[in-house]
Amino acid sequence: MSIQKRQIGALTVSSLGLGCMGMSEFYGTPDEQGGTDTIHRALDLGVTFLDTADMYGPFTNEQLVGKAIAGRRDEVQLATKFGNERRPDGTMVGINGHPDYVRSACDASLQRLGVDHIDLYYQHRVDKTVPIEETVGAMAELVAAGKVRHLGLSEASAQNIRRAHAVHPITALQTEYSLFTRDLEDEILPTIRELGIGLVPYSPLGRGLLTGAISARRGADDELDRRRSAYFPRFQGEALDANLALVEQVRSIAAEKGCTPGQLALAWVLAQGDDVAPIPGTKRVRYLEENVGATDVELSAGDLAALEQAVPRHAVVGARYGDMTHIDA
């Protein structure tokens, strides 16, 4: 297992990061101890790019991450996000990009994380009611104040990326990208590369589908797993059956390569450029170690072609979300 460093915009990070969301919410039963153990093991292995957000929990995931990195803060490239506003009971208020909220959200995140600065601070979703120049202007004030080192956007359109970057340099764009989700290749990826912005793919394993561990049969923990709800159409009925058939194609190529399907899918994302640093999420040490193994999977041009033939870009059935209105397009 060999974790190299990569440059995303102006920030140097581990080539593979760790998404921490599922430790606290959405993907089955929360597991604070498992999450803490996974973060500690990640740091030991050189996976130092950690991703959280204020909305996860809500609020509890930042607290978990903050406790887990206590005493090891200098090893970590710490990323968190604001903009998906939730109440303590979990109720979703809406997307908020107002400057006053940006400032208060940052202060709250710093307190929960127990740190004096955030390495990469994202606008989690673009607030279509607030000019992005105003939101990023407030984020730039946080940089000037020393509370934040670098700025990022998540799920932003090419147009808004350009507008934001004109206000203050944007270091990274976080968006969904995997063998199952490639629409950003048309306009967004060329735009961020033109501007020198790095790419941080979330759900690089297709929300777990590409690991081969998800089946059409439901398990006991599925009541707490939001992937099994209508909010994720790719996991429903005939769509799931069709997508699992694609996974079988990936599994076949992985067997020939001597790796797992998930490692092969991650290796594909890593092979898309040295400015790409995916953040697969897990709350289990064994899955973290499997993901890290992807960094040692070398893909030839023939391997890449075989994967793209096995999973044609538009072959995946179902939208990314049941409600796409929160995606800036």
From TrEMBL:
GO molecular function: oxidoreductase activity
InterPro entries: Aldo-Keto_reductase (IPR050791), NAD(P)_OxRdtase_dom_sf (IPR036812), NADP_OxRdtase_dom (IPR023210)
Keywords: Oxidoreductase
Signal peptide: none
Ranges of residues in domain NADP-dependent oxidoreductase: 16-310
Gene3D superfamilies recorded: NADP-dependent oxidoreductase domain (3.20.20.100)
Enzyme class label: oxidoreductase
PROSITE patterns tied to this protein: PROKAR_LIPOPROTEIN
Alphabetical list of SUPFAM superfamilies matching this protein: NAD(P)-linked oxidoreductase
EC number per UniProt: 1.1.1.-
Pfam family, one: Aldo_ket_red
PANTHER family listed in its UniProt record: AFLATOXIN B1 ALDEHYDE REDUCTASE, ALDO-KETO REDUCTASE YAKC [NADP(+)]
Protein name: Aldo/keto reductase
